[in-house]
Design goal:
CATH superfamily of the largest domain: FAD/NAD(P)-binding domain
Radius of gyration: 23 Å
Low-confidence stretches: none
Shape: globular
Bound molecules: flavin-adenine dinucleotide
Number of strands: 22
CATH architecture of the largest domain: 3-Layer(bba) Sandwich
Number of domains: 2
Strand content: 15-25%
Structural class: alpha/beta
C-alpha cells in the first residue's frame, strides 16, 4: 500500500508531491490524466498572463530569477518554472502522465484508486489536487440560446472566431476581463454582462512595479473593519488620476457593496476590462433577464436590449465537482472542510488542496502551505484535532468568512482572506515568521517581510521545513513597496487605529 496518491499534476499537485518527498514519504505517486504538467495553464488561452506577479506566485524555496522581480509569467513561462521546480525536487519521477483516475473508494482504512486503464492501486491517503476549473458553470438562460453559438472561457483560445461579430461576454472576473479585452478589439460590438460586480479592480502593475508588492503586512495587517475607509481612499486616488481607464476602474469599484469594501470581496487584478470599455468601446450591461429569438435578442436587468447577437462567451466560473470521488464527496463544500482541506468524517485520510481561493494575493503560496500541513500529517508529525473540536473550528471559520465577505462568502464557497488564511495555516504548521526578532536582528529582511509581497518564503524561517539560509537569500532579493498611495492609505489607517485606541470610547469615563 502506498503512503499517498496525489491526483493531478497542476501547480498544486507538484508542490504537494514535493512536500511529501521532503517529509520522507518516498512511496507516493502523482497521477496526471494529461501528458503534461501545469494543469489549467497547460491548456489555457493564448494570451494568458498570470495576474499574480512572479515573486508572489513562486514557491518559497525556488527562486524565479533576478530579472523576474516585477514580471508576470505567460503560461509558457509558468510551465517552465514549475518544470524546473519539479525536476530539481525529484517530483518528475513521481508523476505518471496519461493516467486518468476514474474512481476513488474507501477500503480497509485506506483508498482504492482506479485508473481509466483498469489498473488499481491502494494508498493510505489521497490528495485531491485535480483543480476546480474543469466543470464549467452556466446561468440557467444558456439553455435558451438555440440560435446563437455559445462557449465557455475554458474553451476560449483567442478572439479570431469573433472578428467582426456582435458578441456578449458574460462575467467580468479575471478571465472575463481578458476575454472581453481581446474580443472588444476586433469584434463589431462587444457587450459585457455583469450580474453584480467585477470584484475589486486593481492593476497588475503601477508603473514598472508589480502592484501586488503592496499586498503586504503593512497594509493587510490592519483590522478588516478598516476596509471601508481604505476603499474610499483608493477610489479617490483612482478618480484623481483623471484618466478614462481609471474612471472605469473607480466606477467598477464603486459597485462593490460589501461593508468591508476591498476586504469584503475578491480582487480582479487586471485593467483589461477598463481598457476594453474606455479604449475599445465595450459596453457594460446588467444581468441577462430575457432571451428572445433563440438568443439573437437579449434583454438585461438594467433595461438594455442587445440585438443581432452572434455569439455568447460565458466567463462564469466553475463548479466544485470531483467526479472520481465517492458520490457523497463529489460536490464537497469547501466551507465544510477543516481549513478548507480535511473532511470531518474522513479526517486525515483525504485532503483537498486548492479549495481555498484568496481574494487577493495568490493561490500558489496557499497551495504550498496546504501541502506542508498535509505532508506533516502524513509523516505523523501533526495530528488533526478530535472530531468535536474539528467541527467547532469548521463552524467558527465559516462564520469568520461570512462575517468578512458576507454574500460573497456564501456564493464563492472557496473564498478566503489571503493573509488570515496563510497566517492561520502557519500557526498550525509552526512556521509563522518571527517578525519581532527580525525587526531587531535583521531590520532589512523585516522590512521586506512587512512591506514586500507576503509570499511563501517568509514562512521558511522557522518550524518544520525551515530553510533559513535560503530564505534569507531570497527575502533579500524581493521587491519592497515604494511610498505609493496604497502604502500611504495603510499608514493613515495605522495612525487612525492608534488614535482611536488612545481616545476614550463612547460611554467610557474620561
Ligand atoms: C485562467 C486562470 C488564470 C489563473 N491565474 C492565476 C494567477 O495568476 N495567480 C494565481 O495565484 N492563481 C491563478 N489562478 C487560480 C489557480 O492558481 C489555478 O487555477 C491553478 O491552476 C490551480 O492549480 P491546481 O493544481 O489546483 O489545479 P489545476 O491547475 O486545474 O490542475 C489540476 C490537474 O489535475 C489533473 N486532473 C484532473 N482530473 C484528473 C483525474 N481524474 N485524474 C488525473 N488527473 C486529473 C488535470 O489534468 C490538471 O493537470 C488562475 C486560474 C485560471 C482558471
Amino acid at each position: 500500500m502506498l503512503s499517498c496518491v496525489v491526483i493531478g499534476a497542476g501547480p498544486g499537485g507538484i508542490v504537494c508531491t514535493k512536500e511529501l518527498l521532503e517529509h520522507g514519504l518516498d512511496d507516493v505517486v502523482c497521477f496526471e490524466r494529461s501528458g503534461a504538467l501545469g494543469g489549467t495553464f497547460a491548456k489555457s488561452y493564448d494570451s494568458l498572463e498570470l495576474t499574480s506577479s512572479t515573486t508572489f506566485s513562486m514557491f518559497s524555496d525556488w527562486w524565479v530569477g533576478d530579472d523576474r522581480r516585477h514580471h508576470f509569467w505567460t503560461w509558457r513561462e509558468a510551465l517552465a518554472y514549475w518544470t524546473s521546480y519539479a525536476e530539481h525536487f525529484g517530483v518528475l519521477e513521481k508523476i505518471r502522465f496519461d493516467s486518468e483516475v476514474r474512481a476513488v473508494s474507501a477500503v480497509d482504512g485506506g483508498w482504492k484508486v482506479e485508473l481509466a486503464t483498469g489498473e488499481q492501486v491502494h494508498a493510505r491517503r489521497v490528495a485531491v489536487v485535480a483543480g476546480n476549473n474543469s466543470v464549467p458553470r452556466f446561468p440557467a438562460w444558456a439553455e435558451e440560446l438555440r440560435d446563437v453559438p455559445y462557449s465557455h472561457s475554458m474553451l476560449y483560445r483567442n478572439a479570431k472566431p469573433f472578428e467582426g461579430k456582435r458578441v456578449l461576454v458574460v462575467g467580468g472576473g479575471e478571465s472575463g476581463s481578458d476575454v472581453a479585452y481581446e474580443i472588444a478589439r476586433s469584434a463589431a460590438r462587444c457587450w459585457v454582462s455583469l450580474r453584480e460586480t467585477t470584484g475589486w479592480v486593481v492593476p497588475r502593475k503601477r508603473g514598472e512595479v508589480a502592484a501586488d508588492v503592496s499586498t503586504h503586512r503593512g497594509l493587510w495587517g490592519l483590522p478588516r473593519g478598516h476596509g471601508e475607509r481604505l476603499s474610499k481612499r483608493l477610489i479617490e486616488s483612482e478618480r484623481a488620476k483623471r484618466d478614462p481607464v481609471f474612471d472605469v476602474v473607480a466606477d467598477l469599484n464603486e459597485r462593490v457593496r460589501a461593508r468591508r469594501g476591498i476586504w469584503g470581496t475578491f480582487g480582479t487584478k487586471t485593467l483589461a476590462l477598463p481598457w476594453a470599455v474606455a479604449r475599445h468601446g465595450a459596453r457594460l450591461v446588467g444581468d441577462v433577464v430575457g432571451v428572445e429569438q433563440g438568443g439573437r435578442t437579449l434583454r438585461t436587468a438594467d433595461g438594455a436590449t442587445l440585438d443581432d447577437v452572434d455569439a455568447v462567451v460565458f466567463c462564469t466560473g466553475y463548479r466544485n465537482r470531483v467526479a472520481f470521488l465517492p458520490e457523497a464527496l463529489q460536490e464537497c463544500d469547501p466551507r465544510a472542510l477543516y481549513k478548507h482541506m480535511f473532511h470531518p468524517e474522513h479526517r486525515d485520510r483525504i485532503a483537498w488542496l486548492g479549495w481555498a481561493r484568496p481574494g487577493f494575493g495568490s493561490q500558489f503560496p496557499i497551495m504550498e502551505m496546504q501541502a506542508r500541513l498535509f505532508a506533516l500529517v502524513c509523516a505523523g508529525r501533526h495530528a488533526l484535532p478530535d472530531g468535536a473540536t474539528l467541527e467547532r473550528v469548521i463552524a467558527a471559520d465559516r462564520e469568520q468568512w461570512y462575517e468578512q465577505f458576507e454574500d460573497n462568502a456564501r456564493r464563492i464557497r472557496s473564498l478566503v482572506d489571503y493573509h488570515r488564511y496563510m497566517d492561520d495555516l502557519a500557526g498550525l504548521i509552526g512556521c509563522a515568521p518571527p517578525l519581532w526578532r527580525y525587526a531587531l536582528l535583521h531590520p532589512r529582511l523585516w522590512r521586506t517581510m512587512v512591506y514586500g509581497p507576503t509570499q511563501a518564503t517568509q514562512f521558511r524561517l522557522r518550524g518544520p521545513g525551515k530553510k533559513v539560509e535560503l530564505a534569507h537569500e531570497i527575502l533579500a532579493k524581493l521587491p519592497v513597496s515604494g511610498w505609493n498611495h496604497v502604502v500611504k492609505a495603510g499608514a493613515r489607517g495605522r495612525i487612525e487605529q492608534a488614535w482611536r485606541a488612545l481616545l476614550p470610547r463612547k460611554g467610557e469615563a474620561a
